[in-house]
Amino acid sequence: MTDNLNEIGANAKKAAFQIANLDTETKNQVLNEFATALTEHTNEIVTANNKDLDNANDLPAKFVDRLKLTPERIDGMAEGLRQVANLADPIGNVDTGFTNKDGLIIEQRRVPLGVIAMIFEARPNVSVDASALTFKSGNAVILRGGKEAINSNTTLVDILRTVLNKNGIDENAIQILHDTSHETANELMHLNRYVDVLIPRGGSGLINAVVQNSTVPVIETGAGNCHIYVDDSADLKMATDITVNAKVQRPSVCNAAEKLLINADVADEMLPTIAQALEDNGVELRGDDKSRQIVSSIKPATADDWSTEYNDLIMAVKVVDSVDDAISHINEYSTGHSESIITNNYAHAKKFQQLIDSACVYVNASTRFTDGFEFGFGAEIGISTQKLHARGPMGLNEITTTKYVISGDGQIRK
Amino acid sequence: MTDNLNEIGANAKKAAFQIANLDTETKNQVLNEFATALTEHTNEIVTANNKDLDNANDLPAKFVDRLKLTPERIDGMAEGLRQVANLADPIGNVDTGFTNKDGLIIEQRRVPLGVIAMIFEARPNVSVDASALTFKSGNAVILRGGKEAINSNTTLVDILRTVLNKNGIDENAIQILHDTSHETANELMHLNRYVDVLIPRGGSGLINAVVQNSTVPVIETGAGNCHIYVDDSADLKMATDITVNAKVQRPSVCNAAEKLLINADVADEMLPTIAQALEDNGVELRGDDKSRQIVSSIKPATADDWSTEYNDLIMAVKVVDSVDDAISHINEYSTGHSESIITNNYAHAKKFQQLIDSACVYVNASTRFTDGFEFGFGAEIGISTQKLHARGPMGLNEITTTKYVISGDGQIRK
């Protein structure tokens, strides 16, 4: 099936104008109806999902698991929709306001971005989560999911659009591309006339392709080569617990730690314990010469290891001479996502937080907390690793913009 | 002269790390020394500028005027530097802070973007203004000015770099490309490894080329097809004064009005007066059939007129049936910069401010106020017409970003 991108874009822009001006109560009611509709259409969703699963026979088990929708998972999506209904609506907030020297009252009012495009990979829940967050924040959305989930995604989106329609809301506020070819994705990346921002969600291959090709402004999400630095004043138990948690609690996600740096003064004492705890949890360790002299089971690391995001039970270990060395190494190799120092030294903690150039800089906590839910935003549309517009977990506020609304009584410029 | 962009980028990134962590007092002192140094080197600057002027013999007078540096203009730049020294430093501000459910203290701290690249056209004062604003906000800058101003720009930048050097600050915090070829500009647009944001300043040709080609994130500035809408309840004198001010006070700039929409119910009464006042100020009027039936001196407008930014003493006039028609027309043809309604109708004023999708939406005031100085920001690096990151006049705050700084005592994720 081919899509007419210009038509889709123009329809999205038209719908965006309508939903930008819906009141919060209407939006919340529709979100709750989305939830009810998903539960009511469980069988239909499972049937569509089964078609995708049938086509996914040759794919790895991990991939198939992400694709699979069960009645329980559909209930989970519905619950997510109800949670978004309960979140505060950022639209219409006045962020700042002041009166200028001429007596103009100038207010900076929060408004939707307009049309958001999302390009994502296999997980069909993204189409529902993204629709909920963009709708609540008054934005229209154009979804482009992976071909592996096309039957699930189109069924889910059709259910949401039917609810919009019943409520007298332009159903083109939520659209999905039926054509999952690269050519069509590429067209979407150049739809500057209609699309205000493009958010890719997926592996680094997808994200890099979007950054390289898109002329529509992009918010980069998700690449995480996260570091734990164990300082010379670290508490050994805390260092072990945090390192294990950051590495193994969910190794496939972007806020999982990939690298362990340890201070040379305590490496002899602490590294064997930490390495043992990691290996007990099935982690393969790769390290520099110094770390391998301390723990013989560590395999040699190559130059590539320092910049690799494994998303797996692998961790590279390096012995560093000081907090300054740790900071230099991290600022050189990190993707700017999340880093943590384990220390009891006030000056080192302060220095690490000041000098590390990443979205989230922790003292004595697991990097796994970099997440919209954990931060208390209630939901997230992704984690930005760029510096423009949004940095770190992106909640509703991060998918809005502002405009200046100025009230005068005849002022002209002299 | 050729430039090694990778070397320039790496040097900028290194310098950025140093100046991100300078205290405000040091930065202010350096800015004041910049000012003194410019004044002291007036002769040297004028000599370099004369070389550029000699090469500009064949260029239009307006262009030559923008290029020209006199002792008075150099004093003006020095005064601008001192003003930037007096502005509040946004770096280190904590924008929000909260404690999450696990007891993590999470602060959103304002930090520099890192390395900012600017591509601009003839005016050499941009190299000094941009250096001042990026330095004050802790960012390194890579400047790429037009070839017409190369001698002026490099001389100005050399003076600033000498001051940095004397103060023990990495002079690569301010760099300028000596090669003004398109190839080198293109290389700069793809220097994602080192450049955090690219800000083009100039005509729409330059800005479109950057948006189309750059893989580095861009902040679009400056295109302004601004509208004045005279509502049926407008005060005629106010409507005339604001329209004339918005059109003629400085027609070459982006916040000057280019279009006049007038309500059909008052067009017979008001348009002759407003048109006469504009024509008395040398404005050429182009209009739709209805406006030409009312004022015979109005020339016919073509379809292109509605989307054209003249930057000149030309204005297109259209008679519309209602505030809703005015809003539809503006949202279709505007570049999203600045629009103003002249009205005494509360509901119309509120509707216009709510529904117009532009950076600055005025009631009863000239669009010429869309400006960092007029808003009270003290200075501006440009006016953003995009929705991502910054919208409207960009002061120091808009060329910074944030990072989350998180303080725990051993928290791990469950």
In percent terms, what proportion of residues of chain A is strand?
A: 15-25%
**Large-scale geometry of chain A:** globular
Q: Under the CATH scheme, which architecture of the largest domain in chain A would be assigned?
A: 3-Layer(aba) Sandwich
Mean pLDDT across all amino acids of chain A: 95
User: Going by CATH, what is the homologous superfamily of the largest domain in chain A?
Assistant: Aldehyde Dehydrogenase, Chain A, domain 1
Short recap of the structure:
Chain A is an alpha/beta fold and 414 residues long.
Give the secondary structure arrangement, pairings included.
Two copies of one chain form a homodimer.
Chain A: H1 5-19, H2 24-40, H3 42-55, H4 61-67, H5 71-86, E1 94-99, E2 105-112, E3 115-120, H6 125-136, E4 140-144, H7 150-166, E5 174-176, H8 182-188, E6 197-201, H9 204-213, E7 226-230, H10 236-248, E8 257-263, H11 264-280, E9 284-287, H12 289-294, E10 299-300, E11 314-320, H13 323-333, E12 338-342, H14 346-355, E13 360-365, H15 372-375, E14 382-384, E15 392-394, E16 400-411
Parallel strand pairs in A: 3-4, 3-6, 4-5, 7-8, 7-12, 8-11, 9-10, 9-11, 12-13
Antiparallel strand pairs in A: 1-2, 2-16, 14-15
Organism (chains A, B): Lentilactobacillus curieae
Subcellular location (chains A, B): Cytoplasm
Main location (chains A, B): cytoplasm
Structure commentary:
The structure is a homodimer of 414-residue chains. Chain A has 414 residues and is of the alpha/beta class. The first copy, chain A, is 43% helix and 21% strand. Chain A has helices at residues 5-19, 24-40, 42-55, 61-67, 71-86, 125-136, 150-166, 182-188, 204-213, 236-248, 264-280, 289-294, 323-333, 346-355, 372-375; strands at 94-99, 105-112, 115-120, 140-144, 174-176, 197-201, 226-230, 257-263, 284-287, 299-300, 314-320, 338-342, 360-365, 382-384, 392-394, 400-411. In chain A, the strands form 4 sheets. Chain A has a 7-stranded parallel sheet with strand order 10-9-11-8-7-12-13. A 4-stranded parallel sheet of chain A has the order 5-4-3-6. In chain A, β9 (284-287), α12 and β10 form a beta-alpha-beta unit. The longest helix of chain A has 17 residues, at 24-40. The N and C termini of chain A lie far apart (59 Å). Chains A and B meet through α10, α14, β13 and β16 of A and α10, α14, β13 and β16 of B. β13 (360-365) of chain A pairs parallel with β16 of chain B.
